[in-house]
Amino acid sequence: MKKTIINTALIAVMAFGAVACNNSNKEAKTSEAKEAAEATQEAVDYSVDTQASTIKWKGEKPTGSHNGFVNLSQGTLSVKDNVIEAGNFTIDMNSITDEDLEGEKKANLEAHLKGTVEGQEGDFFNVNKYPTATFELTGAEAMGDHTMVKGNLTIKDQTNHIEFPANITMDADKVTIESKTFSIDRTKWNVNYGSKSVFDNLGDKFINDEIELTISLVAKK
Q1: How do residues 167-178 score in pLDDT, each as one tens digit?
Q2: Nearest-angstrom CA–CA distance, 185 and 54
């Protein structure tokens, strides 16, 4: 079924991963996967500029927090008459980077998140088994000063449908998408390490289930 998703006159659009309005701690509305949108034959494809695009992340625990970024490896937006009809994006999970630590602590955290430490492969993202995550658009809805972007987010072969807020600017050669900060519950994608909602008797040695995300995407014709 072909759908026209986003009218730029209403400010539209995208991205990965994962949902709230102006509250940075607002969790994404999450549900079962839905049918992806399809572009018409007349649509023009815009390719994601992976050097200019990024996804910022933040995770918290009782004793502090960590933050960093992960990169997109590829992506496409399909546009017809200034309307985004469809889109899909691939996230390079091997690019997970921490920005608040240095040296050995930084390297150790990144290795743990990626699952490249023997015996800890499945704690978080297990990039050797699941090197990419994906997001595919299913629709969008104007909500005042922003648009709620809707799509299927797949991490570790687990797919859920999410909604998050984004603003967009578009000209003849470029589409720029900026999401507001939102969060996803990592346990819905089987990222369960240190979750007190999954494991008992963790005391204060737990990690929050919510991961904050902020998406910045540039796509060029």
Answers
A1: 988 888 999 889
A2: 20
